[in-house]
Amino acid sequence: MHQALADMGFDGIEFAGDYGPYANNPSELKKVLDRLGLKASSAHVGFDALNEKNIANTLLYFKTLEVKTLYIPWDERAWDSKKVAQFTQQLTAAHHQARRFNMEIGFHNHEREFEPYRNKTFWQYIAANTPDSLPLQLDIGWVHYAKQDAIELIKAYPQRIRSAHLKVVAKDNALSPILGNNGFAWEKIITSLIKDGHTQWLVVEQEQYPQGLTPMESVAASKESLEPIIKTLAK
Fold first, then answer.
1. CA quadruple 224, 177, 185, 162: dihedral sign
2. What is the pLDDT of residues 23-56, one digit of tens each?
């Protein structure tokens, strides 16, 4: 799979729990990435890997891969009014510990973080109660699904959107899951990510596949649809 992504022209990959035969050997995994010309942009890691017992080993593993940023991808406390304060405290503490390794820990959204909380949203509460140095990975697909304005969110947290997932959540086949075939204002969104969010990595996330296309064919189709936009912004 990594070879296929390299052949498509991707610059890097984001890890999310599957390290194949290299789960305990980051040095060899780094050699594989180097051979393919791929960088590890970041990784999704749960709090179970960041507790007091495991955090040092986890950070060292990803530091070997030259990964600077880890994202908590899912935590049900993030939309629980009785537990969100505890969640933000744990997130902040883990981030501070990671900074001792010259790394950082941030948070990745789904749709429920945009439910109302204290006259705002859980997402706004989490952002306001964590340090400005803590990165927020914006998932554009879930932002749209939650009926939020992606550009407003990017501008609300300048320089914190270090990474973004470019995705379409195509529930009930209402939208094409292929980026560029769904009416999203991708050029404006990506422009704002780079200009306002200081986004360093655009991550193509392909969770759904049109009938007749394999997962890798779907990824290739989404990347191809983004190429004209990326080339325009690179000029």
1. negative
2. 999 999 999 999 999 999 999 999 999 998 999 9
Nearest by Cα to 110 from 71, 77, 140, 151: 140
Integer Cα distance of 194 and 235 in angstroms: 13
Q: What is the pLDDT of residue 235?
A: 64
Exposure string over 189-214, b if 16+ CB within 10 A, otherwise e: bbbbbbebbebbbbbbbbebbeeeee
* DSSP SS3 for 16: coil
DSSP 69: E
DSSP category for residue 119: T
Strands 120-121 and 116-117: antiparallel
103: amino acid identity, one letter: M
Distances (CA, A) of 208 to 29, 135, 175: 27, 26, 11
In the prediction, which pLDDT does 81 show? 98
Torsion of CA 185, 155, 108, 9, to 10 degrees: 50
Q: Look at residue 1 and tell me whether its pLDDT is greater than 90.
A: no
Distance CA 84, CA 99 (A): 23
Write out the two tokens for 90. 């744990």
Q: What is the pLDDT of residues 58-94, one digit of tens each?
A: 999 999 999 999 999 999 999 999 999 999 999 999 9
Across the chain, the runs of DSSP E, i.e. the strands, are 12-15, 39-44, 69-72, 104-108, 116-117, 120-121, 136-139, 163-166, 201-204
Q: Three-class SS of residue 43? A: strand
